[in-house]
Write a structure and sequence with these properties.
Layout (H helix, E strand, L loop, with lengths): L6 H34 L18
């Protein structure tokens, strides 16, 4: 631990970083699933109302 840093701050920072990593992992898992689905069904991304799966306009 760095001098001047409280244990509470260090613990809170570690917990926040752990949560961010869990959220990033969930996002990456979802992205990988969408890529797999698009590879199997190329037209599925065009038929979905979800904006993150639609191709960019213009």
């Amino acid at each position: 631990m760095r001098p001047g840093m409280s244990r509470t701050f260090s613990r809170d920072l570690a917990q926040s970083l752990a949560l961010m990593l869990l959220e990033l992992d969930a996002e990456l898992q979802e992205f990988a699933f969408q890529v797999d689905v698009a590879a199997v069904e190329p037209c599925a991304a065009l038929a979905t109302p979800e904006p993150e799966l639609l191709p960019p306009l213009g």
